[in-house]
Each structure stands twice: as structure tokens, then as C-alpha cells.
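Hi there. Long-time user, first ticket. I'm pasting a complex I've been working with (about 844 residues overall). I'd like to know whether the download I got is complete or cut off, because the file seemed smaller than I expected. Thanks.
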Amino acid sequence: MSLTLSPTVMQLVDAVLELADVYGVFASVYATAGQGRTVCWRNGSFTRRWSSSERLFSVTVITQQGELAQMSTTDWSLAAAERAFHLARERARSDHSRFAQIRRLADLEARCAPFPPAGERQEEWPSSFYRAIEQHHRQCRERFGAIPWLTTSTVRYEFLTAARSDGALYQTAVWRAGCLHEWGRNIGHRLFVETTAETASQLSPESLVYYVDTKLCETDQKPMFAGHLPQSGVIGDSLLLDADITAAIMFAAFLAGTFDHRPPSSASLIVEPSPGLPGYHPLHPYGYPLAPATICSPEKVDQAYLHALRTCADQISSHLTVKLPTLDGQRDQSLHETCQTLADRGLIAELSIFKGIERFHHDPRSGLFILLPKQHCRWSSRRLSIQPPCWLHGSLAHYVAACLGGTGSTVLTWPQAGTGWTMSVPQYALLEMDAVSKEEERHVWCSTFC
Amino acid sequence: MSGAAPFVEQFCQRLLDDSTSCGISDFQLFYSEEKHLGDETGLKESGRGRLILYWRDGSHSVHLLRHPFPFWTELPLDEWRSVRCPDRPPVPGMAHDASAYPQISMLDPQVAAWVTKYKRPSAPTPFSLRLAHVRQWAANSRGLFLQTEGTEVKMQHVRHGMLISYSSRRYPTAGELEYLQAETEWYDACAPVQVPQVSLRQNGYMLFSPDAFRTLIDHGLGAHLGSTQGRSLLKAGRDLFRTSMTISISLDPLRPWSLGSRRFTESGSPALPVKLTGTQAAPLETIANHYHRSSLHWQSDKEVAFHRFLAAAEHVYLVSQLYLPERFSPFAPVTAWSLKAVRFHCGRPVQQGALAFPCCLGTLLSSNRLQLVKRVGWDGTGVAVPIGEMGDDS
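Hi, the file is complete. Here it is re-exported in full:
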């Protein structure tokens, strides 16, 4: 690490845990120290690079009366750690929800595999990674012709520590490499990918390059209605959403707390923090390891774990798998064949298909969202016809409840650019909007002026 | 907690002393330290800064600094040297005379005391409060060392969100608190119908809150300052912005108690008002140097108070927060989404719900019937535009 006059993480941890013993409270410490290097290329040539480092030291105190509080500091010094402990101890108050979350994390701890030992010395920065990304950046530009293209690639090394008064201690290191591509006139398109690994040498640009290439193949087709302002459209009751839209809606619903109250939905949500998957983050800020579990299923909801993940969703990341009932057994079918199969099974008569995301805005507090897809097709009378784009607008709870099932192979995608969260969703998800609440809940943007 | 103050000074001194042996010819430092006290988040200290080193071999390197301000026993020169970039942005200028830096009211000592002591004031309960105490430093190797202190107060209603809000650098007076309380009671008494989507009438006015209008300007004009392509787009529309506008937009960092007020820019030059539109509009480079979203303010001849405006117009749609694409052309129509728009009919709120509407920024700004609306709690003025003149071409 850099040559700052600072205590080691174990010194800070020990100081806080000793204080906790003296005061007779239970303390849980979570510390992250990370360093990153970011390089930026624009239009085929190197623009600039910068380095960054961040540190976080978080103390959660639980008193014997069951009151708790959490204090975090980025000041990596003994004085700040002790101050955080004392502030947490003084301001502890009873918080049933957080207490339940911590209890649940403690129950799930038994499921976690032990972490490999991590040394405090970091390895060398993988410069070959950057070279591979630069080459890919040039290839992408060649493919699309001379349009403005901006690629930002970040490699981060994080050293995580969690320790508790009951003697548990976890120390592990994660390497994270991500890449953000932005292209188009007025920078309309954006693509974010990330991968994690345990050592720097294991960071492979190939998986990122492959994912980006597949996505770019899909956007190769020129949109037929470019520049056309989205209008109203009759979208009918049956919708087929592709993986990007399903992931965006499901992740927004996860953040908004829609899954807390178990809407009558056929969707199951499983969190899988496993080292091979891109969104890997081993520890939770409350001082416990993240365990794989089903957090939401049609039968029950693991509310405590769901809350624990959601409240710290901006500090950690993980992988969520969305499981929907399978509608057909075939894989690698074209869109037309998929629609045909669904019609043959009697599930649909007509279908509105939406692919890609042009714009997506959602509000976690109210659970509303608005989405403009890139492509809109309509399948009726055994024919697919392309339609002008049309907004989807409504409440996340209603869309989640309307999911009937999924079809096609599973796709890994990053629902929100900039965060590390990843999701696995089926290639297509079929939604049946409830005919009864058509007026109130299904919202189609209408440009009619009354 | 003294915070970063002693460290910043020591660091600058060390860099000045050691620069000849390190191979550094100049440096430029900006650091901002904030302490937030919010109802949901509790007490939070954060800091961010940027250090630019100019090396003797003609390269430069940029380093992002985080809270707390780092205290190095030995400067990490090898690490810094490894991230040099070959090109050279403009080298920092000489320090200006102390009188060139404006003295503006930015600090409310009461708010600063609350934040430091971690004590929430007894504000009216239906409002959620967010206080901040900010300290900023700017320094360079040519004799510049500036520091400033400020506070921020943001209040919004617990249920209605940004509809009833207060943003300023100072805590509201008793009169202002009474007004906000009265507005809440009036709003609750009128009890507008909650609809999923508010329907738009052609013969109404769209009233943007200052925050919503700032989003519109920021994403439609400010976002283009960062790229050459964007700047050529802005240059192409210069005539539009120069002549045919009833409203003049500027970056005003000297407005007292506004959240956008500041004494100096990140590169250390004194903060000045900069005009974006009108015949005396500044060149794009100057705008880019001084640009900060919260400093956007606007003026016009027609200004009217909030309730008077509501009573005068038959249909008014109040939009407090806008969702827009991060960057869009001001000459093409774009669809904006508002989460909690309110429709007023003859001065009473009747409907509340989400609203998505198309608008074209260029047409909007050239409307003749544009009015500014004042309201207690708004940082700046709201902008009212007739819906027919918002630029929907459909």
C-alpha cells in the first residue's frame, strides 16, 4: 500500500474489540481498503489515467439490552476507530429490523465455505489487462465506423476484513476489473461489464470482451425509427420482455422492496455470492460472510436477509438469480420460433415484444418506473412486425406479479451500470397483465391530449 | 475534530520544499471535506479532492484524494510517477489578490454547531432534514492557498417529497418554518386524488421547480461542455441563445445563501458570475471552468409569487423533480418523466401522480409567455411555461 503513517487493519480491529470487551458490548467490525487504477481511451487513443484509493472502517455495536448502532469512518487511525466505537455505543437504540438481519446473517454463516488466506501484500497491477482492453476498444471502433467511442477501464484491488467479539475473523482479497463503453453521437449507448478474481493474474479480459461483442452484435442493426419520438401504442395484455428489461425491472424491484411483501409472483430470487461470478463480494458490512440463499420464492420470503442485502446494496454487490417457471424446453430458438411455441401451447394469442433499454428511470420509494425499450415488435396472426417504440410505465410490483414464466437460455447481465450487481435471468420473460386492473395499473404512455 | 486543515497546509509546504528533488515543477490541489447529518443516514463525514502534479519532463499526473486527507511520512513519488500522462493541461496561474475573492454569506454557525455536535435540531416533524458542514481548500505551487467554510440545509416533506421543500445554506427562520407548515396543512386539506398518471391539458402551464429546471439545463446544455462534439453543438445554437430568449441564464456563485454559492473554482480562480445566454454570453471555455450545476440561476422581467400564480392560471402542473437522459440535444424534443407531478385547478391541487411529457429545450426557452415564480424554500425561482409552447412537435 502507499507509504502513509497508518496502523494496520488488525491493530484497529483489536483496539475496537478490546474496547467492546471492556464495556461489555458485542462489536462487529468491517474494514475495506481498496486501490484502483482507471484508464480512459477515446476514439482509439489513450486519453488519461488516474489512480484512486478508498478505505472504510465500520463498527456495529450491540448492547446487552439488544440496542444497536453502526458507525463508519474513512479515517484509518486509532483515534477515529475508537471514536466510532464510542459514538456507536452512545447512540445505540433498539432497532428490531436490523437486529433480525444480523441474527439471520449469523444463522446463515454456517453455510459459507472458508475463505482462502489472503496476504496483505498486493500483487503487481495487470498491465496486460489494459492492453487487451485497448485493443478491443480499437476493434469496436473499426467495426462501427468513425463514431465517437469512449472506453473507461478500472482495475481495483480490495482487501476486506471482518471481525466480531465472538472470535470470528475473516480476511480476504478481491480483484475487480470493469469496463464501461460509451458510444454514439450525443453518447446514446452505454455498456458496462465487470469481472472479479482472487488474484491479479486470474483477471481475464476475454470474458468481458466476449460479452461486449455479443451485445454489440445485437445493436448492429440500425434502428428503423431513429429520431421518432415514442408515441402511444396498443400493447395488449401479453408482453414478452428480453433479458435486459427483465433484469432492470427485477433489480429495481429488489431495490424498491417489492419482494419484501411477497407479491403473488412466480419469480424466485436467489443470491449467489460465489467467487467465480462477476458480482462477487464476500462479506457483509455487519461483519458476516454473505451466504448463498433463496431470498424470495412463491412460498416464502427471507425478509431479514433481503433487508440486509438491500440496505447495503450500494456498498456491496452480489449475484442474483431470477428463476421463473420454464415455458418451453427448447434453447437457442429464434424469436419467431419462441412466439410460435408459446402460441402452440395456448399461452398467447397476440404478443408485444420489447428488447433492449433506451431509457430507464425508477424510484425506489414509490415503486414506479418508466422504460423506453430499443425495439418493439408485435406478433399476431403468426407474423412478427416491427412497431415504433413505445414507453412502458407503471408500478414494479405489478410487473413482477404479472410474470408467468421464462423461456430460452439463462443470460448474465449487469442491471445497473456502475454497480457491481449482476443478475441471471431467462432470455425472455412472459408477462400477462391482469385484465381486471387494466385501467388502474397498466400504464402505457399516451400522447393524446384531453 | 480538526479535520483536514493542518494536513493540507503541511502537505503543500512539503511539496514546495521537496519539489526540486522530486522532479515536480508545479502542483495544483483542491480538497473538499463535508460532514453530513441526515435523518436517515445519520452522521457522515466525507471528503474528496484532486491533486494535479506537473512534472519537469513535460508530463502531468492526476490523483484523486479521498477522506481523510492523507498524511504521508514519505511522499509516494514512485506511485505518482507511474501514472503520468504525456500531455499538459494549462499550468496553474498566479495567486490573485485577496480582495479579488468575493466575500459571500455561506456559513450558518448554528448549523455548523449542530453538525459538529451531532445534534439534530427540533425541526417540524413532518420534514426530513439533511444538514452539511463543508470546508474547501484550493492551493497551488505559485503562492495560492485558499480555504472556505460553508453549510447546507435541505429539508423535504416526509410524504410529499420534494413538493414541499427547503434548500439553502442557512437554517429557515421561524417565519419560513411557519410558511412550510401552513403549506403542508393546506396541501393535506385539499387532498388531491392520487392517480397513476396525470393527464396533460394543452391550455395549462407547466411549472418547473428550480431543481427540475436545473436538471433540464444541466442535461441539455451543461452536459455538452465536456466534449468537443457537444461544444460544436452549442456553438451552432449560439444565435438562438443570444437573441430570442426572454430568460437569461447564468452561473451565479455570488448569490447569498444559495447552495451554488462559492468563493473560488477548483483551479483557484475567483468565482465570478458567468452568463450562458444573451448578447454578453461568455466563451465556452470560461463557462466550462466555472460550471457547477447548483450555481445555475436565471432572470427575467416577469416574476410572480407562487400562490398568486396558481390562482391566476387555470391549470398548472407543478413538477419538482425531473428524470431526463444524461445528455440530450437542446434542439430536439425529449421525453421527461416526473414522479410526483401535481395538477392545480384554479389554485387547488386536484391530482397527483406520475407525468411523462415531451419538451424541446430550445423552444421552451424562447417562449414569450415564460414567467418566473417565487416561493419560500426554493433555491432560486421556478419557471412557468405554457404547455403549448414547450416544443412538442407531435
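A couple of notes from our side: The first helix of chain B runs from residue 5 to 22. The mean pLDDT of chain B is 86.
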